[in-house]
Amino acid sequence: MTAPIELIPPGIERTAHRRSIVWSPGDDAAGFATDHDCYLTQFGAPGNGALTFARVGVGAFLADRAIRRNELRQRRQITLIVRVPDPDLGAAATNDLASLLRFVTGDDWDLRFEKDTTERPSVRRLRSVDEVALLSGGLDSYCGAVLGGTTRRLFLSHADAPVITHSQHTAVDHIPQFDPDNHFRVRLAATKPFSVEPSRRSRSILFMALAVALADASGAVRVEVPENGFTSLNPPLAANRAGVLTTRSTHPMTFELASRAVNALGIQVTLQNPYEWCTKGELVALAVQATGEEQVTGGIASTLSCAKTNVILPGSGAGRNCGLDYACLVRRAGVRAAGIADSTDYLCDDPALLPGLADLRRSDIEAVRLALPRPPSVAALAGESGPFPPGYDYDRAVDLWRRGIGELSALTLP
Fold it and tell me: Which of 300, 299, 356 is nearest to 324 (CA)?
């Protein structure tokens, strides 16, 4: 049985029979590397509820990386103990937080809260805004930033790899009226011995939790998580890729469960995806309408959508979109559907790399090939991509699925 994992602030004594992770900025040997302290004072002064959510997000992300999945991808049993200022507040939200983690990661989580006895720094509110928007370095978050208009907003980026940091830095050059003073970057990466599992299913929860903490500290009433609805829908491409075998990062039920957890913690912040009913192509087209084709074309090329940048071919270089994993196929199809040029430097455009890359991405390519002739239906969506929130509009979702598959059908698959 795997030993419990505990996330503790500096100054708290480690507990025997637990795998302790000390949240200490600048100490890469502590189990993870970060540039933010455990009270997130760089954000200002998040309340106890928001700080609890953030620490659960950080702890879950590190625990997720620390326990290797077996070859059968069986459900793991993970016990996570988090030190927080108000353990009773955390305990009141335990069921909602565990449900969120279970849905996104596919694992069973036993969450426990203990008292953080360290002295909390006195920090004033740094600024006051209306909204916090996630800026991941991907194409959808770039489009969301372009479409943000004149809303008083902060941007939040999280990176645990240099290639992600690079895309975040380059994408902002193509966002009109971008203010670097309103951009918060958080470095938080698992290090040895807490980096044995390559998948990062819990990263979306970490990202949301950090954004909620920033929103709470700055008086923002909402957090925007921009993602095209087709990807968020997690449509069943093939029977062997249903459920958590594809992304649930921004699935409608993820927002539902995260909102329940936020409410249980007493946080007055709303989580939303304004583009939940748009395909990738429709989202890109909205950005083009708002800013112009030339601006968006340059921005697209600077973003990183590839979900498998860790698989590098000899001579390919790091940090490039491969063009053939599922995320890249949806990306290429979406840009094509928007009717604009795609100047992205895809690995698959190199004839010397294409054969080997096609072999590496065979499961993604075949899953899309199988999905194209499959008629979207409410029964398939509810049975293979569910559950969904109460009152969910299945008919509208099936139409979204149909439009998304329509974009993919225009691609030539190797």
Answer: 356
